[in-house]
Each structure stands twice: as C-alpha cells, then as structure tokens.
Amino acid sequence: MPSSPGVALQVEHVTRYHYAAPVDLAQHEAFLRPIEDEFQRVEGFEMGVEPEPLHHSTGRDRYGNTRTFFTVSGAHRRLDVWARSRVRALPRNHEARLAGTQAWEQVAARLRYAARAPYEPACEFAVESPYVPRLPELFEFANESLLPGRPIGLCAVDLMHRIYRDFRYQSASTTIDTPLSTVMQERRGVCQDFAHLMIGALRMHGLAARYVSGYLLTTPPGATDEQADGEEALVAAAASVGAPRFIGADASHAWVSVWCPEPEGDGFWLELDPTNDMLPATDHVRLAYGRDFGDVTPLRGVIRGGGDHALEVGVKTERVV
Questions:
Q1: pTM (2 decimals)?
Q2: Scanning 80, 97, 193, 319, which has its CA 20 to 30 A from the CA of 262?
Q3: What distance in Å separates the CA atoms of residue 292 and residue 321, rounded to the nearest whole number?
Q4: Angstrom distance (rounded) from CA 214 to CA 209
Q5: First CA to last CA distance, the chain
C-alpha cells in the first residue's frame, strides 16, 4: 500500500434527460461509483434519481466494477440522475518501473493461446471487442512504437505520445457510433476515440489493453518544463502536465490501461491518457474498467415512450481538503 496520504478529490456528476413526450417506463444501468483499490479509496458516495425509482439495486459486474440498476415507473418528461463522490487518489510511481517491464514480444507470447499453458487472465483484453475491431491500419500505426526488444511499458508510453501528436482533439467531432476507421482516417476525435484507438493498436499486436472510464481534475495544478534525455525523456514527458487546463475535463473522461508484466512478480496495469499525453496519477478518478466503452457506459437505459429527447451532462472535479 502506498505510504503517501494522497490527494482528496470530489466529483459531482449530473445527467438530465428532457423528453418530448411522456416516458411510461424506464430501466437504466449506471456505472457511477468509483473503483476502490490500493491506489484509490472511496471516502464517500451518494447517488440520487428523480423521479424516485420503483426499484433500485447495486452489484458487481464481471470485472469487479460497481453497477447500479434502477427502474422508474409512471409518466415523466424529465429524468435527473446525480452522483457525488469523494475519493483519495494515491500515487503509483509506475514511471520508475517502465524500463524494467518485459519486452513486448514476450508479453504477446504469454497472451497467445497454447495447449496446456498457464491461463493469463489479461488475455481477455487482447482480442477485439464491439467498439474496437481489428483494423490493418491500427497494426501499421503501432509498428513505430513496438521496436524489437523494447519493454512493453516504454512501447505504450511512446504510442501514447504519438496519438497525442498525430491526432487532434475536437469536441463533438464524433459520436460513440463513429467507426474507429473514420477516426484513423480523419485524425481527429474525442477521448473515447483516442482510448479505443490506442487499445486497438496494442491488441493488433497481441497485447492486452483495457478501457478506463472516469473523471479528470477540472483545473490542474501548474505545469513543469523539466525534461531529460533518451528513454528518461519519454517517461518524464508522460508524467508531467503539459497544458494549463486538461482536455476533456468538463465531462466524463476515458483513458487506457495496459498490462505490463515484469520478469519477477506479476507486473502491473499501466494507465495512460492519450488525450492529455500523461500517466494518470492523482488528477484522475477511475469509475470502471472494461473491454471498451460499451462495457462501462456511465449511464444508459431502455425507455417506453418519450419520443425525441435532449441530454445535459455536467461534471465538476476538484481537490478538497
């Protein structure tokens, strides 16, 4: 367990649906309670729904995420869902371990099926998923980062840098249904696109990568311009904050987690934020892990009635004492 007291963060997330016609029945699924593990402690969580649900239940999904179901019965033209979380984010210090991770070819070999070989749980995240198909262009894009014998941690950081450099963040330029091939062709998108792109590029080479949903500090602390040489520069650039305001901080955010085994021990899952070109630490709040966006959508549901609808989403993440 990290010895640092960490950083306390508070998140307020409000989702509001306005319906053109009354909704008679609504059934929803939500992933709004943050993950709790050795690097993130949940110190408080509240969630509310208006109109009041007829049924409400909470459980765990197959990946250990907290999933909430609720049913709203009775005619309504508006649905409000709010969640307030307080977490303590703890430093991970993964930067110092990147150069000591296994070569990416060895990692891919460990994840490849072989009769009577030990089962690697991470292999579930090394294959295609609904939002992350197999695309030849993803394979080619990753080649420049996957140099022969290079540690998987350094490969992943380099790939993150290149996505940040070669793709342009443009709010509302895509929807969740925009094909990944279109994002590759147009070289623009939003945080979900860049997460899917990075995941797909790694999976095309047999590597394991997860989608992470969560939040990002709305206004970050000051940036640093310190740099180093060689592989140290690669790590330093990923660990520093490069902009006065994070991209994608005014809504729910998405980034990537890459499996990085080490010669000794089990290794670790390395998180990378290609939208902001950084290794998440104490400025990110994690909600859930999955194969892609479809596994961990913050809020979705099925309704009877309603007609057209308008959606408002507001997120505020701040440091607290």
A1: 0.89
A2: 193
A3: 34
A4: 16
A5: 21
